[in-house]
Amino acid sequence: APATPEKIAVLCHTGAGGSGVVATELGLLVAQAGREVHFVGSAVPFRLSGQRGLQGPYFHQVGGFAYALFDQPYPELAAANTLSEAILEHGVQLTHAHYAIPHATAAIHARAITGRSRVVTTLHGTDVTLVGAEPAFRHTTRHAIERSDHVTAVSHFLAEQTREVFGTAREIEVIHNFVDAGRFVRVTDPAVRARFAHPDEALIVHVSNFRPVKRVEDVVQTFARVASEIPARLLMVGDGPERPRAFELAGQLGTLGRTHFLGSFPDVQTVLGISDLFLLPSSNESFGLAALEAMSCEVPVVAARAGGVPEVVEDGVTGFLVPVGDVDAMADAALRVLRDRALYLGMGAAGRQAALTRFHPDLIVPRYLEAYARTVQG
Ligand code: GMT
């Protein structure tokens, strides 16, 4: 088998979002596997902070550049420049770009500048289904996909969608996301749960970046229906543009007293570990990493049947899937799980089992290492 490159750069979004989380967790595991990993970004990635020991990965800050004549700081050009430095100074052999635009574009640019370093691009969704398909970016996105040395997608749905939207015949390898099942576990200490709910209350949770695609108002509507039938509380974890509307709607529906808006924080496993049900009503989701993290914590998932979610959440086994926007169906499914202890426990156990088998890092990380190896040989 071809050898995995020794030095790998990672380009990703650094804020709260599944792609940056996957990029970070993968980069850390690749570093643990003995490779030298160089994160390149405008900030330390969301979940990387605090995780860098002496042997840990490098972080190269992409500088901003403000000049009176320029109306923009041109961060992609700065990223290509910083990455070129890492390639030239450290001998980086391969760049793993998470997202076609802007990261694969910057990586392809750095490859052209240096005449070295191969590019593996992982598609996560928003670059294909939302932003990349916009006429303003179509050609740039297609170019990034076609000129990468290897392309992966986080679900079969996304691979198919990419071929359809961009009319490309490019080979796209599907590598599902993974979850650290050692960290994402059930929290059994009743004192932790008691901070948020009484023992007789069902604890429902939603985690996202509150963009319109997440349909957070559906979470609030669903919760109102559930809470009118059984004692329950809602934890809203994350932050983003739709948070004020969700807050206002909870006020209108009279559930604000039973809803906690916890804001954004990286240690989401603590909250998932004490929850009874995860709601994911997104209208589009190429994978749904947050749902997988919940499953790992033995939390059943009720989600909208969108995009790649059915590849993660098995309807009737690890949760229930309902049509997008159908809050009545979502509430019925939630009540079904929460009222039937055997079903609740069975779905939680099945979710954990899926995390330990189909989505375990031991299964997924070697697939990336093999892809890296093939790419530097090819
Ligand atoms: O949708 C988000 O919250 C963020 C977004 C991102 O790009 O960071 O997530 C995308 O990538 C995740 C990791 O692969 C997937 O789990 C999400 O489903 C995907 N989001 C969408 O497709 C909308």
Automatic annotation (TrEMBL):
Q: Which superkingdom heads the taxonomic lineage of this protein's source?
A: Bacteria
GO terms of molecular function? glycosyltransferase activity
Where is each Glycosyl transferase family domain found? 198-353
Per UniProt, residues of the Glycosyltransferase subfamily 4-like N-terminal domain are 17-182
Do you know which InterPro entries this protein is assigned to?
Answer: Glyco_trans_1, Glyco_trans_4-like_N, Thiol_BshA
Biological process terms in GO annotation: bacillithiol biosynthetic process
Gene3D superfamilies for the chain: Glycogen Phosphorylase B
PANTHER family (UniProt xref) = GLYCOSYLTRANSFERASE, N-ACETYL-ALPHA-D-GLUCOSAMINYL L-MALATE SYNTHASE
- Name the chain's protein: N-acetyl-alpha-D-glucosaminyl L-malate synthase BshA
Supply the source organism's classification.
Bacteria, Thermotogati, Deinococcota, Deinococci, Deinococcales
